[in-house]
Inverse folding.
């Protein structure tokens, strides 16, 4: 079926290829001239902020048009919330199908103020990305006052495609990364600051669930430092406040949804520890072997001064392996970002202090090599494919979301009715643009499906789909056959599918292909007993 989004993506990718020349010019100029100046004037560092900001600002438009499919889940929740329906995806069915209450409510506020949700999410994400860059440079300055080290660290942040790809993606990633950077800065700036850690914990637990173990590490370290002081009553009071603040989301969730854990905890993932290890190594690859080597050297150097940094690195890695991951686990490599920067600063300061290090030559060279690596990755976004690793995931997902799922959602808005029921697995753009009642076979916004997944009763999802008699079904064709299947459901029964007719087939240049089936008029009356 003709897809108008194809033309839109063609023109967007063409513009990016032309715009890339400006990005390359700015990256190379800042790396070369900045590296030379940093080596020459080691006592001046404030100029690094506008230099890094220039690189960051030039990078933003390159990734602006790529919107992750899961962002549209936030958009639908936020717009329903702004419309007075509460935090719901399907009207009348409260279900916490989002990973960040704070991001959802923030987008809802923007919607109430009349801001287009997609545009607002990207603007806020871009501002938060700039805040993260500022905090990381200030953190680097706290650890080391060598301008050469601060410059190379800032270059690493401002050019990082794994960061830049996610910042304007529409997801909650930008908000959580900014919180992590603030957390790292607070731990470096106020190592015994139990009060700032309490405030950060109270905020972080509303942003993402991972904030719990990050906050616990920060609070324990601050509490340990505070043990050297005599004000025991103050420590006890702050500990009680911190614990109470971290329990609030559970109370809110129980009141709002009747649950203690979000639906996303039960839904979707059938991954294993083995797959988690695979995603762990994929996430590590996003920073590069050399960066990791230098960072690990630095973290080892800081093991007594900042043991929380190494502990946080290990904790996040263990978490990735434990949950088994899915393709969105690529965001989790960003949870390491402040820790990696801290390690890089300490590691670089150790390397640069050696007598054999020729700063006038090596600082610009390292900055140019780093920029060149990220420019290569950046240009890869103009050739979207089926690759799902790190920085390339967002662009590829954004392209096939536009060319397939968003196009299907727009088609359904025109050819269906708002009260129609639609069965699908990817509920982002399809659900957002169609506005239909969604039966989500991955259980993100369908509590009944989520409970079946949690209870390892996936076989029952097929019966549930058949029983709901949806007007529309979106799924995939089995390669090499005429069979049609949906994740978590499997191949749909022949008798059931005889009551449907194929309405369209959408295929993206990434290879992502989706089929849309519509229930025939009186289909279930003519075939009232679908085969199981």
């Amino acid at each position: 079926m003709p897809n108008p989004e194809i033309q839109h993506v063609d023109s967007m990718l063409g513009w990016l290829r032309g715009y890339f020349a400006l990005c390359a010019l700015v990256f190379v100029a800042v790396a070369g001239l900045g590296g030379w100046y940093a080596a020459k004037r080691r006592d001046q560092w404030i100029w690094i902020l506008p230099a890094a900001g220039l690189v960051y600002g030039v990078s933003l438009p390159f990734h602006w048009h790529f919107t992750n499919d899961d962002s549209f889940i936030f958009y639908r929740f936020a717009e329903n919330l702004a419309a007075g329906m509460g935090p719901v995806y399907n009207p009348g069915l409260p279900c916490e199908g989002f990973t960040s209450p704070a991001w959802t409510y923030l987008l809802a506020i923007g919607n109430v103020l009349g801001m287009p949700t997609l545009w607002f999410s990207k603007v806020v994400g871009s501002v938060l990305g700039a805040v993260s860059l500022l905090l990381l440079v200030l953190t680097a300055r706290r650890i080391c006052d060598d301008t050469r080290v601060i410059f190379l660290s800032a270059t690493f942040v401002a050019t990082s495609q794994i960061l830049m790809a996610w910042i304007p993606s529409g997801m909650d990633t930008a908000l959580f990364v900014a919180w992590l950077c603030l957390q790292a800065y607070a731990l470096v700036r106020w190592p015994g600051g139990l009060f700032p850690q309490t405030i950060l914990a109270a905020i972080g637990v509303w942003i993402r669930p991972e904030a719990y173990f990050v906050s616990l590490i920060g609070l324990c370290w601050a509490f340990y430092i505070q043990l050297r002081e005599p004000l025991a009553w103050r420590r006890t009071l702050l500990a009680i406040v911190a614990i109470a603040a971290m329990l609030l989301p559970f109370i809110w969730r129980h009141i709002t949804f009747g649950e203690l854990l979000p639906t996303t905890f039960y839904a979707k993932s059938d991954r294993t520890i083995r797959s988690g290890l695979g995603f762990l190594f994929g996430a590590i690859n996003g920073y590069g072997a050399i960066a990791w080597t230098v960072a690990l050297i630095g973290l080892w150097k800081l093991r007594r001064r900042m043991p929380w940094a190494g502990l946080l690195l290990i904790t996040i890695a263990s978490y990735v392996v434990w949950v088994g991951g899915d393709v969105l686990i690529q965001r989790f490599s960003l949870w390491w970002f402040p820790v990696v920067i801290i390690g890089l600063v300490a590691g670089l300061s150790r390397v640069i202090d050696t007598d054999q290090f020729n700063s006038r030559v090596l600082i610009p060279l390292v900055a140019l090599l780093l920029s060149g690596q990220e420019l290569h990755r950046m240009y890869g976004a103009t050739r979207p494919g089926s690759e799902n690793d790190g920085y390339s995931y967002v662009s590829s997902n954004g392209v096939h979301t536009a060319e397939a799922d968003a196009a299907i959602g727009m088609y359904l808005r025109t050819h269906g009715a708002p009260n129609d029921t639609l069965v699908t697995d990817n509920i982002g753009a399809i659900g957002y643009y169609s506005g239909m009642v969604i039966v989500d076979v991955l259980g993100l916004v369908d509590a009944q499906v989520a409970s079946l997944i949690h209870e390892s009763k996936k076989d029952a999802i097929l019966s549930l789909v058949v029983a709901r008699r949806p007007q529309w079904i979106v799924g995939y064709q089995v390669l090499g056959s005429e069979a049609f299947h949906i994740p978590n459901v499997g191949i749909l029964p022949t008798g059931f599918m005889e009551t449907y007719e194929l309405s369209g087939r959408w295929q993206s240049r990434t290879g992502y292909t989706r089929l849309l089936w519509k229930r025939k008029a009186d289909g279930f009356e003519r075939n009232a007993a679908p085969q199981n």
User: Anything to note?
Assistant: Residues 394-526 form one domain.
